[in-house]
Design goal:
351 residues, Quinone Oxidoreductase, Chain A, domain 1, Rossmann fold, seven-stranded mixed sheet, six-stranded parallel sheet, 25% strand, globular, binds zinc ion
Length: 351
């Protein structure tokens, strides 16, 4: 099979991803082989490619917003069945035994494996997954539109939950990429008011179109204090800015896996019970809840789809904040010659 691999971390300008020919993996006990239709491109992929995060295996196949169908099941797998559509997300596996797993925080499991980071991901014609960690997807949705829901959506949704924002309250969103534009739709559906902070004119316009009540730059003070804020941009200097705009008792959530250092700041910004917290990964429950909500609320990502030959270009545009909505790679999987059951194969550019 063909796969895009990362062997050596370097700036995306130098094209860190290249094609390689790998053998199709065989699903072991509890595993499934997934034939990939589309895979989202996330900021985390960028951070891994460029070395902001350490390389945990080499070479590695990136991509953790995987939409595909089950091509083969390993021993002991009752569901999903062959031919069923599944979504794979960042959490590839957790132990189920440790104190974190037992208290419903499998996202913090010290033994957790991560798709496209510690195990190979979806920038590949086929990929392996643990059946219990594959999220069922409806049979009829276009793969490019489902892919961004799987990380941008799920992790964004966890950030929204942990922000504590309630109906009628004002939620601030700092940075307006793939995740924020989905969280904005969820927040609006849940009856929250959204203020969006981004320097990009294009992103400001998009935020307005999606129902943001106010838009400005990260250094601007909003007309009313925020009840909660989520920072999507990997820029530590935004933390004191967001705290300055948040009311007493409000929470500022840091939604990224990587952030530049947070500058020193006066204690008064944190005083009055403001909370700063991070969000790490997501659980299967977050995934199931968010996919349900997305369906109910009609949350749809704006997608910029690329043929997977242009993966390095997609990463570059992501780095420059020039993607409107979410970047997705179309993965062409024909090497085994099996008939795809992809429902949109005929009418769309579905691989
Ligand atoms: Zn991600
Ligand atoms: Zn565990």
């Amino acid at each position: 099979m063909r796969a895009l691999i990362l062997r050596e971390q370097k700036p995306v300008e130098e094209g860190p991803l290249s094609f390689a020919s790998l053998s199709v993996p065989k699903p072991g006990p509890g595993q499934i082989l997934v034939r990939v239709h589309a895979c989202g491109v996330c900021h985390t992929d960028l951070h891994i490619a460029e070395g902001d995060l350490p390389l945990r295996k080499s070479p590695v196949v990136l991509g953790h917003q995987v939409v595909g169908e089950v091509a083969e099941t390993g021993p002991g797998v009752a569901k999903p069945k062959e031919g069923e559509r599944v979504g794979l997300f960042w959490l590839a596996w957790a132990c189920g035994q440790c104190p974190f797993c037992r208290r419903g925080q499998e996202n913090l499991c010290p033994k957790a494996r991560f798709t496209g980071y510690t195990v190979d991901g979806g920038f590949s014609e086929y990929t392996l997954a643990f059946a219990d960690f594959a999220l069922p997807l409806p049979a009829d949705a276009p793969p490019e539109e489902e892919a961004p829901l799987l990380c941008a959506g799920i992790v964004g949704y966890r950030a929204l939950k942990l922000s504590g924002a309630q109906k009628g309250e004002i939620l601030g969103l700092y940075g307006f990429g793939a995740s924020a534009h989905l969280v904005l739709q969820a927040a609006r559906f849940l009856g929250m008011r959204a203020f969006v902070f981004t320097r990009s004119q294009a992103h400001q316009e998009q935020a307005r179109e999606l129902g943001a009540e106010w838009v400005g730059s990260p250094k601007d003070r909003p007309p009313k204090p925020l009840d909660a804020a989520i920072i999507f941009a990997p820029a530590g200097w935004i933390v004191p800015e967001a705290l300055s705009s948040t009311r007493p008792g409000g929470t500022v959530v840091l939604a990224g896996i990587h952030m530049t250092p947070i500058p020193g700041m006066p204690y008064r910004l944190l005083w009055e019970e403001r909370v700063v917290r991070s969000v790490a990964n997501a659980t299967r429950a977050d995934g199931e809840e968010f996919l349900r909500l997305a369906k109910e609320a009609g949350i749809r990502p704006e997608v910029q789809a690329f043929p997977w030959e242009e993966a390095n270009k997609a990463l570059l545009l992501l780095k420059r904040a020039e993607i409107r909505g979410a970047a997705v790679l179309r993965i062409a999987a024909d090497s085994l010659g099996t008939e795809s059951s992809c429902p949109s194969r005929k009418e769309r550019a579905c691989p």
